[in-house]
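Fig. S4 source data, part A: sequence.
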Amino acid sequence: MQSIDSWPCQADLRQGAAEAPVVDSALRQGLVRVLLTTPSMTGRGGVSQYWRILKSHWRDDVQYLAIGSRTDERQFVTPLRLLNDWWRFARTLRGGDFDIVHVNPSLLPKSLVRDGVLLLLAKALGKQVVVFVHGWHPGWDSVFPTYLRYAFRFVYGRADAFVVLGDRFKRRVRVLGYKKPIFVARAPIADELLLDHDDKPTEQGTMSCSKFRILFLARVEREKGIYEALDTYWILRQQHSVVSLTVAGDGPELTAARQYAIARHLSDVSFVGHVDGTEKRHLYATANAYLLPSHHEGLPLSVLEAMALGLPIVTCDVGGLPDFFENRRMGFISSRRDPEVLASLLSLLISNPSLCANIREFNRTYARSHFTGGQIANGLERIYRSVLGEADDTVL
């Protein structure tokens, strides 16, 4: 099986493909027409961000359809919204000349039921279906009762292909009984983070600056490793007076994390809340290292973004990261979230400016060679064609 990130990128990108009007197949000049279900495009989650980045890079005719919970949705509204989502999906599918249906469930009960109905509707209407699993709670699938495994195989076994974000996820889909092709994808970096600007970092990886700035940029929640990050920083402060920590992001643990930092008397810690656009780029550009001791991931976009801006990475062996991450060349990936271990890895970066400089250059080059929106969109389009029997067997 070939990972889609290894397929060549097409240079001619068609802007606005996601909003293209319905046209007759004969007039589409060989384009594949895809109905892609997504979360709300205004959401801050990683899946929403994934599809926002790709929206301007499609060469095929990809139409987005928002499915799933809305911001501040009240619980009693959920069943009605779910029925409405299924009805809108069926109406859109019947009214359009779609070749492929692409759904994006997480491997969690609510999402599997919601998108399982979409899959069955699409197959009833004679469509080919691709299932892309982004979210994956560790161990949840391993405790599937037998009847749920049968239900998974009965419903999701009808999909024509699966896409996952790492080889370990491919193995878990096989354990659940899926027999058809499974592709491994990577994640795209937003175009604005790949552009060269005047704010290109000049101090990263050196000790000429007054502080060695560590950045944690993620949703502030326990499972992203916020408390391990704060404990790691506390250890580093005992050893290196030059370090500082910036926590960027919002989430359910933001207030508690602030209080935790105060209780531990952590100085030089900044909580800046949610950031985006130029503010996000500035944080990456002015940091010296990126820390993410996450408990589980699909493929964290923030790690790829940090690499694109030249940051050495200190992270954990989660999700799809081990598929490509090279220790010492990209930073350090640890099998443990022990703050003592993470602090020792960051200390290696602090005390070795030449290592930081080498990592910085390698990461910038690697990210720009593997994680562009055009490359990822092109790879997914190759999957669509393979499902339709229009690509050669080497993509499987």
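Fig. S4 source data, part B ends here. The chain has two domains: 4-188+372-395, 191-369.
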